Amino acid sequence: MTGPVPAFLSSLPDKLALYETDAYFLDGFEDLTTAAGDSAWELCHAHALLLLKPDAVVTRRLAPALRWVLANGFSITGATIVTMDRHSVRALWHYGLGAASRDRRDAADLYMTATDCLLVVLARHSPGEAATVTFNRVKGPADPADCRQGQLRHDLGGFNYQLNLVHAADEPADLVRELAVLCDHDTRMALYRDALAGRDATASAHALAARLEAAAPPADLDLDRTLADLARAPAGGPRSSAAAMRSLLSRIRSGRSRDWRSLLGLADDCGIAVSRWQRIVLATYLLDPYLPGVSSLLPDASASG
Q: Domains plus CATH for the chain?
């Protein structure tokens, strides 16, 4: 691609300027125009991207999410399994993580790589706003406490600011860029072709969802039950560590502490086995997600309803 990013891809001038030199966007846009030609605008306007995250896998929310999108005016044109690592986590949220705390970045690495994810391309043809914008609104804010009845995150039952089950591209420009982050060239081209052809990939999406859930044991993502499990666990090691852990658990349960890192360190000292998902629960419920006084490069469309 040469020249400015087409204005139909974003309503944000800063995003258009940043994406002119973003390698992921450039790859994705080149593939888009190769696949769609003169229909590139139509494809971007009529399609949205939904990523069902590992917390949706282990709490068995995949099939309910797919049923929800179909019941709310969207169709499914493509689906694929995505394997995340710390590099793709940072690439996906590159323009927001600069304002994120170290705890939030570490927790994102931990939970986004816990299982594979399900990527779904959605279609909704309307003369009004882009499908990405429509879907981002009906998906609901990042914090489930701010979601309203009828929004996807509310209806699925999200857990906290990070364990909110789903991610979606904010605008057409993000659809293009994020497909390039999450998929290789061949997969991306196949998804573009299927979207252009209006393929019905509902059965494929459900089959992939069943495969993901069969490969991942279910997990309990409730904070109170996780803390209670740790309190009941037999503690070995130094008495001082066991006493310190009981004290810290009490302060956390009463809201007087959020020191999840020290809690995990004390559990290790006491020889208490803490599962990966228990560690994820502690981190994501107790962390402070933002750096004080630091703004992200681009606004997060999920920050509010």
A: 7-215 (3.30.70.141), 223-274 (no CATH)
